[in-house]
Amino acid sequence: MSKQDYSTTILVDQSPKEVYNAINNVRGWWSEEIEGPTDELNKEWFYHYKDMHLCKMKVVEMIPNKKVVWKVIDNSFDFIEDKEEWVGNRIIFDISKEGDKTRLTFTQEGLTALYECFEVCRDGWNNYINNSLYKLITTGKGEPNPKEGEGFNKELADKWKLN
């Protein structure tokens, strides 16, 4: 039996360029609580959701209007035993034309049903990609997690800050 990485696909009327630009506007669809450049090749950025999920990503591939790939450099979950499950995974956004529409296929290489976080992570990505990113692409306004301000453990987050 082969492992199945998590993947989901959306179709939109917008151009590949509009889809590509929306993907790279991570604060507009995933979280306003992101530090660092999300749209520059070989740059790292930091995401957290409260103290539940902290993640450092690196942009490892950018092909304008066709593909974006992030690599998970560090990761910490507070709700599962293996806190670093995502480390080494690749987050892939493939963009292609399908007739007069644009297809976006999102894949997290490494996120399989074998992961303890699979159901929670799958449900999260389904919301962020199929709802928030879709809305950002089609209406110009996504539904990212809002900034949290002081509502998280700063000491924990400081170890994840970008150098």
Describe this structure as you would to a colleague.
This protein has helices spanning 16-24, 118-139, 154-158; strands at 6-12, 34-35, 44-49, 53-63, 67-77, 90-98, 101-109. It is α+β, with helices and mostly antiparallel strands and 163 residues long. It has a single domain (6-142, 150-158), classed as 2-Layer Sandwich (Alpha-D-Glucose-1,6-Bisphosphate, Chain A, domain 4). It has a seven-stranded antiparallel beta sheet. Strand 3 and strand 4 (53-63) form a beta hairpin. The relative contact order is 0.23. The mean pLDDT is 90.
Protein topology:
Elements: E1 6-12, H1 16-24, E2 34-35, E3 44-49, E4 53-63, E5 67-77, E6 90-98, E7 101-109, H2 118-139, H3 154-158
Antiparallel strand pairs: 1-7, 2-3, 3-4, 4-5, 5-6, 6-7
Strand content: 25-35%
- SS content category: alpha+beta
Low-pLDDT stretches are: none
Q: Please indicate the count of domains.
A: 1
Percent helix range: 10-25%
Feature tags:
seven-stranded antiparallel beta sheet; 7 strands; Alpha-D-Glucose-1,6-Bisphosphate, Chain A, domain 4; alpha+beta
Summarize the structure.
It is built from three helices and seven strands; from the N terminus they run βαββββββαα. With 163 residues, it is an alpha+beta fold.
